[in-house]
Task: structure prediction
Amino acid sequence: MRGKAGAGILWFVKGKKLALHWQILIALGLAVIAGRLTGTEGTALGVRWFAVYGFVGTLFLNALKMLIVPLIASSIIVGVSGIGGEESLGRLGLRTLAYYIVTSLLAILTGLALVNLVRPGIIHGQPARTVIGLTGSVQEVAAHVHGRGMADVVGIFLRMVPTNVVQAASDNRAMLAVIFFSLLFGFYMARIPEPGRGVLHGFWQGVLDVMMRITDLVMRFAPIGVFGLVAKVMASTGFAAFIPLASFFAVVLAGLTIHMFVTLPLILRLVAGVKRPWRQHRAMGPALLMAFSTSSSAATLPVTLECVQKRAGVSERVASFVLPLGATVNMDGTALYECVAAMFIAQAYGLHMSFGTQFNVVLMALLTSIGVAGVPSASLVAIAIILSAVGLPLEAIGLILVVDRLLDMARTAVNVFSDTCGAVTVARLEGERGILEGELG
Result:
């Protein structure tokens, strides 16, 4: 038995007999079974399986997070410096930014429509406040909701310009500052005279090459890391944990599904001119599975880059600019989730949200999603900002923690898929065709 286990691990590490995404999919299935069988108290030789799952999953996540800053910085600097003239960069940047804003806004409006239609915070015609254990006074909460503004969101834009870029690089929550600095560095690096320009470009290209090799090493252990992450979730929550928040869970999943399988394919068809947009889902399979498993769009970036360039035929010029930027600022699924969560909590308190207040929620979800790092459960911070801005108690965040992990996995997959659709759309608008015509077109 021990020999078979060792052979299985060796097979996972080498990753030659089966494609990576199939290995990850098998690991997901085994993790669900193992997590449900062992629970949080199951032991072997005096060691809890739950602790083993946590150790393996955390070790893998730490390895992925180790790659984030140097990988993103080098990718953006090399990508921006290689774009060319200011006109080219401006056109590419505007198209990318326009795509991110429009798709995030469409995702938020989808979530807002569903949460107002289904009203998951209302149970049998009554607010779910007492059923789900909210203790705050309805009168006090209602008094705070009225007249709240956008001041709390200003800090996001202040954090975009770091006072110390080295300190910002040491904090995964400050990735927006790292990206802003990298954009500036790459832009002006391409405009200095030789030999400085060539030396810097060679240095950052070397950093990028090294990071891709390290990433390849880490990814060989992806199935094992995914197994630990998912088994821990299943052991601690299982399926029964979703019963009290089933309506909320269903609304978020419905919104994510509509955005991923209706809205984004329509953009590919109508804007990018892709004749068979549904093929994008199959082409991006490895990246979507990795995103779902790790709940980290930033950690999935190496796989996303590979899928977009090799499976969709997008050039390195476009992919290295659009995807690293999207891994931090393009959070369609997160923005949708934040909006639904805030509205759900308001409904649970029995509060009537006016059009103006709902507009504030939409705008804040859009802005805060830009500042959310591509790491697991980082959206909880953004939700706290939204709740504070509209006057809802932060105690309500405890409600969604029960289902947050699996929803985090689902919305991260949507975030990454939106990034890939953005890369294809921008590439098409830039006049690229390549494999796109044969594979997706």
About this structure: The chain has one domain: 18-38+46-439.
